[in-house]
Amino acid sequence: MRTLHFKVGLFAAATLLLGVLFVLYILHARGFFEDTYRLQLAASTADGVAPGVPLVFSGIEIGRVSTLGLNDNGGIIIHAELLARNAKWLKENSTFTLDKPIVGGAKIRIDSPNLDAPALPENSTMLLLTSDVTKEIPILVERIKAILVNVEHLTRKDGEVNGTLANLQTMTGRMTGEYGMLEAILGSPEKARGVTDTLEKTRALITKLDSLALKMDGMAAKADTWLFAPEGVALQTREALAQVKLILADAQSSLKKADALMTNAVAISADVKEGTQDIVKLRAEIDDTVRKANAMINEINKKWPFARDDPEVKLP
Question: For residues 98, 102, 105 and 109, what is the CA-based torsion angle, rounded to 10 degrees?
Fold first, then answer.
């Protein structure tokens, strides 16, 4: 019997000891035995703030609001506590913002843009900013009302949407006509027919112009052959001009002889009969040379298609 009581007592003591150790472990895990860092936040209103509201840094809770109170001037003071190991995230340039979402509880968001800044001393008083989404709800409601009014104006019977749909239906109906998209764009079959007729005429004109261009190319090729071929007009004309040049040179030589003879005739006027016979002979040579030049010029005019008159070399 004594052994049974001893075992029961031993079991109860062990259970109690395990319970105490479990509680101590929970308290240790929650930082009950760690140093506490205290902070005051000055706010213009305590709406949405209550003991237990979390302090969040980068989305992780590092502390909570402990109590709320008033200072000597009637201002609101919010007391917050956090573990000393989490105080390293609080800097002198940190900002504290009260977020009050539409859904969910409020929280105090801590932002520290520069973690190298000096640490925030304990029991410091910081300003609490407010980010209340619910204050923007009336503005959003007014904007939604304006949007609904615009939508109603657009979708009414005589609104822009119905007018656009009617115009679209009319255009799609025209697209099913004989001229398709062209009729839909121009608005009537007559106008579309006029455009197609113009295009057909333009196509026919272009075909004629192509044919004319081919003919012109053929004529140009023939003209080149006629003028510049080895036996063409250009070569014959050059040869004829060379002969004319020779004939004119002979005529010039004969005229020089006539000048000399006239000079001699004055000097030898005693023998008039002999001088007269020389002049007649020279005149005959000049006439023969002129006839040859005229015949050559006539031959050139026959071969040169652009001459109009029959030029003739006349003896002065």
Answer: -30
Return d(Cα 171, Cα 124) in angstroms, integer.
74
What mean pLDDT is predicted for residues 287-294?
72
Mean pLDDT value of segment 281-296: 72
DSSP-derived secondary structure letter, 91 = B
For residues 179 and 190, is the Cβ–Cβ distance under 8 A? no
pTM over 0.85: no
Note the pLDDT of residue 215.
82
Quote the tokens at residue 302. Answer: 């026959």
In the numeric block, the tokens 């004109």 are attached to: 205
Q: How far is CA 261 from the centre of its chain?
A: 93
Helices (H), 115-232: 137-155, 160-175, 181-186, 189-228
pLDDT in tens, 190-222: 777 777 778 888 888 888 888 888 888 777 776
Rounded Cα distance, 120 and 296, in Å: 124
192 and 204 Cβ atoms separated by less than 8 Å: no
Please tell me the distance from the alpha carbon of residue 287 to that of residue 297, in angstroms, as a whole number: 15
Q: Give me the pLDDT at residue 227, please.
A: 55
Local confidence band at 255 (pLDDT 50, 70, 90 cut-offs)? low
Rounded to whole angstroms, the maximal C-alpha distance in the chain is: 204
Each domain of the chain, given as residue ranges in start order, spans 36-137, 156-222, 233-303
* Distance (Å) of CA 207 to CA 31, 199, 203: 98, 12, 6
